[in-house]
Amino acid sequence: MTVLVTGAAGFIGFHTARRLCLDGHEVVGIDNLNHYYDVALKQARLKELESLPGFSFRKMDIVDKPALLALFDDYRFSEVVHLAAQAGVRYSLDNPDVYGQSNLVGFLNVLEACRQHRPEHLIYASSSSVYGSNSKLPFCVEDAVDHPVSLYAASKRANELLAHSYCHLYGLKASGLRFFTVYGPWGRPDMALFKFTEAILNDQPIDLYNQGEMARDFTYIDDIVESIARLRTRPPVPPTPDGGCNRLFNIGRGEPMALLDFVECLESALDRQATRHFMPLQAGDVLKTWADVSALTAWIDFRPQVSVATGVGEFVKWYRGFYRI
Asked: pTM of the full predicted structure?
């Protein structure tokens, strides 16, 4: 099969493209290589991918509709794994236009390309942030998600609604994946684990918002990729719960961990103590995330399982090796 992976130089995109290549598929990866974080890290990921048989890369922005449609003309993609997006909750507070372009216009362009070329399955990234201010825990895919507390979350919920419309109107088959705090080797520098590791190794304090009284459903990257690999062979069939062929899944470990416990895992892996800098809750943040993964488990017979201690240890090994520390 020939699979398109958008955002292939990104964290999840890189791991997904690598897994698909190792599984024997032809993979076309696209990415605009923007400067949201260190481009050198993205280029290093691409270097790893380009060493694999079956992988090819085109630098491209999904906002460029003519270029995207031309790419679909050049290949008959059997599947599309759409992971390109402007990430980050806090960044959206100061840079809303970027989210409107990448996450809304860009996703609409991907849907239009799929409408015209009919891949067997569109898998697209959503986010646990769509649950916003929901107080019911754990978060379930059937819960109402009408109150996002960040522009990033609103853009991801908009993606789910756009996909539903296209599936209803044009018979596309799509799966939206609500990722819960993904971490692991090759991770993003703007994420807590990366920032904490860098700070601790440089004897700098780490910022803990809401006085550290937060919890996240930390999900290791290998569990994310295994879920995607299984889901891609199982497109939704009607009738799905929302009445179309757009099915939503939480992908999380299903076990929230207190932020301070997460820091202790990192301290153990680094064999160093962190200096804690407690700060108030930031706009757009939620206090706790917790995934109900029963729908995912029922659909693909898999449940994310890598422990946080194991996953953090693997990240630290990668970080020390990559940065030669």
From this structure: 0.96
Taking the alpha carbons of 32, 38, 42, 47 in that order, is the dihedral positive or negative? positive
Q: What is the token pair recorded at 105?
A: 């216009």
Indicate if the pLDDT at residue 94 is higher than 90.
no
Alpha helices in the chain (DSSP H): 11-22, 39-50, 65-74, 91-94, 96-99, 106-117, 151-170, 192-201, 221-231, 259-270, 294-300, 308-322
Measured distance CA(157)–CA(216) in Å, rounded: 20
247, 141 Cβ separation under 8 angstroms = no
Residue 44 has phi, psi (to 5 degrees) of: -65, -40
Which residue shows structure tokens 């980050």? 88
* Digit-coded pLDDT (tens) for 176-193: 999 999 999 999 999 999
Number of Cβ within 10 Å of residue 225's Cβ equals 20
Q: Residue 75: helix, strand or coil by DSSP?
A: coil
CA distance 121 to 202: 45
Buried b (16+ CB within 10 A) or exposed e, 266-286: beebbeeebeeeeeeeeebeb
Just list the catalytic residues. 152
Ramachandran angles phi, psi of 308, nearest 5°: -65, -40
